[in-house]
Structures are given as structure tokens and as C-alpha cells.
Amino acid sequence: MILTVTLNASIDKLYLLDRAVPETVMRVREVHNTSGGKGLNVSRVAQKLGEPVTAMGFTGGFNGQYLESMLASTGVSPRFTHVSAETRSCINCWDLSNDRSTEYLEPGAPVSPEEVEQFLRDFDAQLPMADAVSISGSVPAGVPAGLYARLIERCKVLNKPVILDTSGKLLTESVSAGPTLVKPNEDEIGSLLGDKPCDEMSRAAALKHLNNQGIRYAVLSLGADGAMIAFDGECWHGRPPRIQPRNTVGCGDSMVAGFAVGLARNMGILDAFRMALAVSAASAMSLLTGDFSTEDYERLLPQTELKRI
Length: 309
Ligand SMILES: Nc1ncnc2c1ncn2[C@@H]1O[C@H](COP(=O)(O)OP(=O)(O)OP(=O)(O)O)[C@@H](O)[C@H]1O
Ligand SMILES: [Mg+2]
Description:
The protein has ten helices and 15 strands. The chain is an alpha/beta fold. It is globular. The relative contact order is 0.14. It binds adenosine-5'-triphosphate and magnesium ion.
């Protein structure tokens, strides 16, 4: 079982508009509601790859119940810590005339110290059953600094592989706990190391630097250019075939899901890398975030190319 952590979950509403015109009343052509938050994208993709997933984090109120029922309908087991505040909503208005989107992200209400303590107890109860753990995204107000590092330390005590995918200050303060795998994109590695590496050699050096800091597998995702991975003194560049992307938001989450499945199944890391490349490229071809077509994935898998640097 893969355990995912999404502390800042939301109901994500995708509004498809024929044309977005500011300062007018617009009728929405289609609405798609999904359980949102980066860790929930990871959860749905890992579950669709055939691995059982238990999703943890905070949910509250009717929105929280709705989120859990949507998640359960995809096969994921929700094991959230229930909080007093209502789960937030995030709205993505998609203009079909030019394929541009505008997002409105609610801040979400703070969680209390007691709710954080309850989450830690709930996490400790689930952790022994996990084959891999994935921690993603931002945290709501009220979560104390260093919580991700504490979760990573608990995983290491029980010898559970743990993936961390977050950004900014949260990433900086949590990498020192030594997660098994991190997957920054170019901006995230730039803010983590103070300098954005711009060519293959400097990217490989940046990843090896992360290995030296105690991160076994350091992955850098490069959008349509695929991704690089460094481990045990080796560095590889993996490329998916050229595809027609439809929605690349959340492709990084799909990549994390591929790695989580690989680690949970104890696969060789390069096989896991191939799976992560194929499923993230398949996810770029899907309109819905945190989704992919199995047919696309199976077609892309043998077409991914790995090159040792
Ligand atoms: N246009 C594309 N064509 C093929 N594969 C893509 C494309 N965009 C993304 N991918 C795949 O998805 C992976 C992750 O994408 P990206 O680097 O954009 O992640 P990210 O910035 O973390 O995204 P997010 O945080 O929104 O999930 C890439 O390494 C690649 O394998
Ligand atoms: Mg990302």
C-alpha cells in the first residue's frame, strides 16, 4: 500500500467557458469537480497504475465529506484527520477559445495544534502498513515548521521509502531530513540550491549535490524534456516520446506516483523511472489533472528513452 499525505486538500472545480470575458456574467459550459491537492493527484494516478493507495491529510465539513466520497469512487482509501474548518475549494476557469486558464485558490482555514497532534497519531497508525510514502504540496496555516521533516524521520525509523515533492521554504526545511526521493522542477531546484542549473552538466552536479546531502534518488523534472535522475554516483536523462500535450498541470504529481509505485513494488530504480516518465507524459495528454489513459501509458512506456550522462 502507498500512503499519501495531502495536508492542504481542496475541492478542485474546473469551469470550461466558451470565452472568458471579464466584467460580464458568463455561463459555464461544463463543470468538472475533482478531489484536489497535489497528493491526491498522486493518489489517483498510483491507484490507476494498480497499487492500493491510502490517502491522509486534513478534511472538514461537507466539502471534506464530498472530497472523500469522490476519492473513494476512484478506489483510493481515504483516512483523513477530520478538522472543524470546512475544506477549501479551488477554481480553474478554462477559456476554450484560446486554451488559457485562470486559477482562484482559496487560502483554507488554519488547523489547530490538537488537530495536528491527531494527524500525527493517525499517521503513526497507518505507517506500519505502508510499502512507500509520498508527501506532497503545501500545508495549511497552523501546521508547525518542520512537520514534513518529522514525518520523514518516522518513515526512516520504520525503513519505509519516502518521497517528498514540495516547494519553497517547505522544501528547504524538509530536505535535510533525508527523504528517499525528491522531485523538484527547474524553479524548485533553483530556489533550493540558490541557483537554477541551466545545462545538463550543471543539472547533474546539482542532483549529485542532493545525493551527498542524504537523498538516495534525486530527480529533476524538465517538462517536455523529460527528467534526470542521480543515484549511487550515476546520472541518467530520460525522455518520453514527443506527444500532443493537453494539460500539463499535475504532470509532476503523476511522475511522483510512478516512482511511488516503483518503490512500493521494490522495482529497479531505472524501471521505476521509465514508468514515471511514461505515466507523466500520458497525464500531459489528459484534460483532467491527476488522470491518464491506460492505453496512452502502455503505448508510451516502451518508447521512453534513457541515456546515461
Ligand atoms: N509536454 C510534455 N510532453 C511530454 N511529457 C511531459 C510534458 N510535460 C510534462 N511531461 C512529463 O511530466 C514530468 C513532470 O513535468 P513537470 O516538469 O512540468 O513537473 P512539475 O513542474 O512538477 O508539474 P506539477 O507540479 O504541475 O505537477 C516531466 O518530467 C515529463 O516526464
Ligand atoms: Mg511539481
